[in-house]
């Protein structure tokens, strides 16, 4: 952990996916498209279809990992709600949208009840509003 996490730097970049695989796949689809344009053939068309398929596979793998991680965050936050809040409030909080739960994970234990009240009373609507309202940021350094 080199830098303390906060709202302005909490976005997590996965270098292999974002800066190596993604750009290489993009270059490949462009290259295959240019080759298909220059030399139209079924073989080149097949290469373009394969390049598109590999991009779709890459995106699907990334989205599946993020969805699994979102489920873990939901479970962690429900356990945290049960530990910090009354049973009634914890039950209401468990029914929040996953985006709001994910945003609330950054709130410290001290300010969580206040922020949760604001979310439940619909004073904070979006994950961005929730995150910007957090004063004592609780970093998530394990997200991929």
SSE layout:
Blueprint: H1 15-38, H2 42-84, H3 87-94, H4 98-104, H5 112-120, H6 127-133
Helix pairs in contact: 1-2, 2-3, 2-4, 4-6
Plain-language structure description:
- The chain has helices spanning 15-38, 42-84, 87-94, 98-104, 112-120, 127-133.
- The protein has one domain.
- 68% of the residues lie in helices and 0% in strands.
- The chain has 144 residues and is mainly α.
- Helix 1 (15-38) packs antiparallel against helix 2 (42-84), helix 2 (42-84) runs antiparallel to helix 3 (87-94) and helix 4 (98-104) runs parallel beside helix 6.
- It contains six helices and no strands.
- The chain starts with 14 loop residues before the first helix and ends in an 11-residue tail after the last helix.
- The mean pLDDT is 93.
Describe this structure in a few short sentences.
By secondary structure, this protein is mainly α. It has helices spanning 15-38, 42-84, 87-94, 98-104, 112-120, 127-133. The chain is built from six helices and no strands.
| Structure summary, number of beta strands | 0
Distance between the amino and carboxyl termini: 14 Å
Annotation field: number of helices: 6
- Inertia-based shape: elongated
Q: Give me the Rg, rounded.
A: 21 Å
Helix and strand content put the structural class at: mainly alpha
Largest sheet: none
List the secondary-structure elements in sequence, H or E. HHHHHH
Stretches with pLDDT under 50, minimum 5 residues: none
Helix content: 55-70%
Beta-strand content: under 5%
Mean pLDDT: 93
What is the domain total for the residues? 1
């Amino acid at each position: 952990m080199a830098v303390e996490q906060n709202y302005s730097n909490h976005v997590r970049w996965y270098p292999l996916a974002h800066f190596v695989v993604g750009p290489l796949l993009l270059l490949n689809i462009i290259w295959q498209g240019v080759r298909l344009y220059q030399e139209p053939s079924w073989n080149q068309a097949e290469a373009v279809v394969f390049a598109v398929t590999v991009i779709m596979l890459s995106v699907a793998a990334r989205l599946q990992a993020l969805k699994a991680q979102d489920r873990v965050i939901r479970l962690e936050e429900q356990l945290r709600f049960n530990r910090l809040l009354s049973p009634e409030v914890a039950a209401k909080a468990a029914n929040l949208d996953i985006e709001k739960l994910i945003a609330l994970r950054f709130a410290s234990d001290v300010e969580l009840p206040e922020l949760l009240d604001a979310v439940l009373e619909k004073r904070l609507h979006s994950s961005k509003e929730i995150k910007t309202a957090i004063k004592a940021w609780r970093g998530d350094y394990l997200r991929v």
